[in-house]
Structure prediction request, 376 residues.
Amino acid sequence: MLAVLCVAAVAGLGAVIAAGRGGAPEAVTADAVAVAPRTQAQAATAPATTAPAAGPGTADVSVAAVGDIVMGTPEFGLPPAGGRRLFSAVKPLLRGDVVLGNLEQALATGPSAKCGSGSGGSCFAFASPPSYARNLTAAGFTVVTTANNHANDWGAAGMRSTDRALDRVGLKHAGSPGDIAVQRMDDGTKVAVIGMAPYRWSQDARDIPRAVALVRRAATMAPIVIVSAHVGAEGAAHRRVPRGAEEYLGEPRGDTRRLARAVVDAGADLFIGHGPHVMRGMEFRNGRLIAYSLGNFLGYKVFNTAGYAGQSGVLRVTLGPDGRFRSGRLTPVRLSGDGVPSPGGSSVRDVATLSRQDFGRSSARVSANGTIIPRS
Prediction:
């Protein structure tokens, strides 16, 4: 992404479920198309033919999901202690069979492909040292998506570095074209995760027919499919989910509403959005929850956290063996001036209001304590 877009984008920002059941990493490349080849542990090529959908699992699956994560970057400062305390205040919330976030940065060193070196704070390129991958696993994450505009800030080499760093700590990941990450629980239950964004180096969220095809492929591999998408215009002025395609600073950002509903119709059981960098509303479709944006979860010295941009949350959902929504709760989180999360804030009230405004009868009902239920 061009530097001028990144500068304006950041300025435009305005400014407990039981512990997981574990399981070994399993990652699959289900599509041969890739702009920049990337490696991933235990990768295989899915069959080209369409297989029957996977049958229902045998147990409920708990999910904890958050939005965008940036653990610091040399241009603006890296955190003390190698970032080991970044998630300390919210770690008790990051509990589930699947704990998912969007890693909006590279894990790489050296000058960025986008900015070079010594830009003096004039270029927004995000990368932490590869060793920071262990901060994610220590916090409780089981899978991250890498489909977003900043994943490519260090170019193809930086994306490969990111994948290697995540592989070394056993953290599953998905984001490049055709990626499907499959997490297998100790009891054999499988969950497939797909990351999407409106960029050529990711599974392109603008290509809805291809997104639908990938979800259908994932549904043959696991009974539960989660889609995480970095889509939509940015900032407090874009809290509402529009009808039609979104743009930001002239850049196409996808048709968020149409994408979310299409992938749910195709077999996705949970849709998690996060591109706008602010919280958006939620709705239900086919008994599945669509959370249009969970905003920023951690952005050490890289995001403006004033006002609405500083409100975040942890979405905790229990899905039945067939993927159907059983229960959910949004726990509010707020970001400090340095972009570090801690419990609290107004996101529950904000999301409840936005859900009613944008989706009416299909909206999620969010109570004062964050409980999420479909409207009858």
User: Anything to note?
Assistant: Confidence is low (pLDDT under 50) at residues 1-49. The two ends are 43 Å apart (CA to CA). The CA atoms of residues 51 and 236 lie 43 Å apart.
